[in-house]
Amino acid sequence: MKKLFLLLLLPCWTFAQLKGTVVSQADHKPVAFASVFINNSTVGTTTDENGAFSLSRLSPGKHELVVSVLGFEKFFIVITVPHEQPLVIQLREKSTELGEVTIRAYDKDGWKTWGTLFLETFIGTTSNADRAILKNPGDLRFRHNKTDNVLEVFAVAPLKIQNKSLGYDLEYHLEIFRIDFRTNTNVYAGYPYFRERKSVSRIDMRNREATYNASLMKFIRSLYHNTVQQDGYTVRKMVEIRNLEKARVKALRDKYTLKEVDASGRLIIVSGPVYPQEIYTADSLAHFQAVLREPDSRFSLYKDTIPTRQLVLTDSAGVKKIMFRDYLYVVNTLHKEEALYLYYKREKRARAPQTSILSMLEDEPIEIQGNGSYFPPLNLFTGDYWGWSNKVADLLPLDYKPRSSVP
């Protein structure tokens, strides 16, 4: 009897190694015990007594390398792996004078006043956020500019976050946190480093899978690997149509509003608007009031979906980039919204497929990677579901690999 042998071709993950040395820029002496890690990953280490480090398990492509140690400025560089030559990283010492001057401007009771808002904006309000704990809130500093009505938050040390839902301990190096109350917008950015908790349960793995299925990271991976339809996404263009009549009425209101400059040079409103009665009748004024209650704009959604080939362009070097105008309206047809999302939106309806909006803040192409990262990261704005769920409590490392099922 002939025997049949089956050759199973399994996917092979190719990893590379990165080596280097960290020294002081001032005297070129080695810097020991510096934290060296790949941004938004579980890949990291510390330098030895000679300032040397070695990172393994790096996938080919671009990575953001971060070096951080007390007393020195944080170092950041984008590297392309494989990287044959060892790195020599020079760190600049921090200026103590600047820190002493800056600390005087912080709000005295910042955490008491702004702590809850910070946690909701930074950690989030998803089910994962319920079990994500900020361990060192005392390292945060708050500054509220009352003139501009802007809140800024600074961290004097890496933020330690224990995420019990996903089974990670997170070290987040916060670089910027800003809420503009006038425009109702917020932005924050930093360098997260993940460590697996000692005991990761099956529930943790299921939570990771659910979080991944709802993530922007998965969508970026789908774009890169051309699996958008297979992964259940529909992508359509959405445009914003300005209310031109409201813009005209607002300009008239501003024209006839009485203003003056006070002693400090600020423009203040005295009264108004006072419209000339010989020009504007009572009917005109009623029309103005009705128009001013209308939204500044409305959104129009295109009927046809956008093929991936129209979104992702590949240059001669094989680098993939996305570039689009207006907005992308992305529906995750395979996964529904969290119930907490409806509570957050104050909407009483049945849970629907997760629907998100993407827009580009600058007319600059965004490079995407197979692991779900993109550059520059601050050029991509998220709204609706991703705007709600794309917070620290729902972050997964870029080296996360989903499982098809968890028993």
Walk me through the structure.
The model is unreliable at about 1-15 and about 95-100 (pLDDT under 50). It is built from 9 helices and 24 strands. The protein is α+β, with helices and mostly antiparallel strands. The strands form 6 sheets. Strands 8, 9, 10, 11, 12 and 13 form a 6-stranded antiparallel sheet that branches. Strands 17-14-20-21-24 form a 5-stranded antiparallel sheet. The protein starts with 15 loop residues before the first strand and ends in an 18-residue tail after the last helix. The protein has 4 domains: about 15-95, Carboxypeptidase-like, regulatory domain (Immunoglobulin-like), CATH 2.60.40.1120; about 95-215, no CATH class; about 215-240 and about 300-390, no CATH class; about 245-295, no CATH class. Helices cover about 20% and strands about 35% of the residues. It is globular.
Largest sheet geometry? 6 strands, antiparallel
Number of continuous helical runs:
9
Q: What's the helical proportion of residues?
A: 10-25%
The number of domains: 4
For this entry, what is the oligomeric state of its chains?
single chain
Radius of gyration, CA atoms, in whole angstroms? 26 Å
Mean pLDDT across the residues is: 89
User: Which spans have pLDDT < 50 for at least 5 consecutive residues?
Assistant: 1-13, 97-101
Terminal residue distance: 38 Å
From the helix content, strand content and strand pairing, which structural class follows?
alpha+beta
Portion in beta strands: 35-45%
Shape: globular
Tell me the number of strands: 24
